[in-house]
Amino acid sequence: MVAILLVLLLALVLFGAGFALKALWWIALIVLAVWLLGFLVRGTTAAGHRGRWYRW
User: What is the pLDDT of residue 3?
Assistant: First the structure.
């Protein structure tokens, strides 16, 4: 009985980890798309030059 419960618990943990990793991949793709849009649509400075695409 304990072995069955451990196997079910392991399956539940692995299913949860797989779902979390898939969600993290989607979040990473969305962040990448937003970063690329910010890179392509950056503003200009007062002198008319293109500003830096990064903030640091």
Answer: 85
Enumerate the β-bridge partners of residue 50: 44
H-helix or E-strand containing 34?
helix 2-40
For 3-24, the DSSP string reads HHHHHHHHHHHHHHHHHHHHHH
44: closest CA among 53, 35, 36?
A: 53
Look up residue 4 and give its amino acid. I
Indicate the SS3 state at residue 33. helix
Q: What is the pTM of this model?
A: 0.56
Cβ contacts of residue 43 below 8 Å, gap of 6+? 51
Q: Please, are residues 50 and 44 in contact by the beta-carbon 8 Å criterion?
A: yes
